[in-house]
Write a structure and sequence with these properties.
The chain is an alpha/beta fold and 258 residues long. The protein has nine helices and ten strands. The protein has a single domain, classed as Rossmann fold. Helices cover 34% and strands 16% of the residues.
Length: 258
């Protein structure tokens, strides 16, 4: 872990809390080549042109996806991170807002409806943040994000750091980010959702060498720092939940049914 600008840790937080914060912040979707492959297959299968990300952090992930999707919409609650993210993606196909993620999701889905769009959005929920002072019902941003998406069927959702198949995942105060935690909210987004997860076999993470020449990945300080940070299996191999509007033909995907 390096530079001071990365993480807002109140002085009162313990080293355990700081460790959780660091872990949340540096996990990234682009880092797992298999996750990227599955996302591109879903993009093709559901004819998706818009990628949405909550919690864009320093923008490495949205910069990557901006090379693959026609438009990218993202938000972050931190002015500091958003500024860094914007500096990375200045000339690209982006809408980036400093806003709380549930409010952001409500607003983009309302706009989408007003525009009478019917296409499917790919929504990556990654505004994870651990604040030990938050009351139990506010602790998991992802639950409030799913509530904001209630009734919005035109989406495929990906949730990183999910508890499945023994892979690395989030645990706040002993509570795991698992299906039980979010199943009620998911069923209200789309009762027809089908659920899929990855396994250790279906993970393949990047190294400093493997990013060379990959479209959308840049060998900048922050990208290399993210790669170096993933030093243990728990950090490298992260669980993913995919929620999609209809059944997938698993001969085409490296995923298993939830
Ligand atoms: C895990 S990091 C995101 C990493 C990033 N998606 C990536 O792949 O590189 C979490 C980010 O969510 C942001 N965040 C936390 N709570 C939020 C909220 N309620 N609304 C929007 N952003 C939030 C944090 O500021 C932080 O930048």
């Amino acid at each position: 872990m390096g530079t001071a600008h990365k993480i807002h840790c109140p002085a009162s937080q313990t080293s355990m809390e700081n460790r959780i914060l660091e872990e949340l912040i540096l996990m990234s979707w682009w880092f797992d080549k298999k996750a990227v492959e599955q996302t591109l297959k879903l993009k093709e299968e559901f004819d998706i042109s818009t990628y949405v990300e909550t919690g864009v952090f320093r923008g490495i992930n949205i910069r990557f996806w901006s090379y693959y999707f026609k438009e990218v919409w993202g938000c972050d609650i931190s002015e500091e991170y958003l500024k860094i993210a914007k500096s990375k993606v200045q000339d690209r196909n982006m809408l980036l807002l400093k806003i709380d993620s549930p409010t952001f999701l409500k607003s983009i889905t309302n706009t989408y409806k007003k525009m009478r769009r019917e296409d499917t959005l790919f929504i990556y929920l990654d505004a994870h943040f651990y604040d030990p002072k938050l009351p139990a019902n506010e602790k998991w941003v992802v639950k409030n994000e799913l509530k904001a998406l209630e009734g919005f069927r035109n989406c495929a959702i990906a949730i990183h750091d999910f508890d499945c198949n023994g892979l690395g995942h989030l645990v706040y105060d002993g509570e795991h980010l698992n299906f039980e935690l979010i199943k009620d909210e998911l069923s209200k987004v789309n009762p027809d959702f089908r659920f899929y997860t990855n396994t250790r076999e279906f993970c393949e993470v990047h190294t400093r060498e493997s990013i060379k020449g990959v479209i959308g990945l840049v060998e900048d300080e922050e990208t290399l720092e993210t790669i170096d940070y993933h030093s243990t299996d728990r950090l490298k191999y992260r669980g993913i939940l995919y929620c999609v509007p209809r059944e997938l033909d698993l001969r085409r995907y490296q995923l298993i049914c939830k």
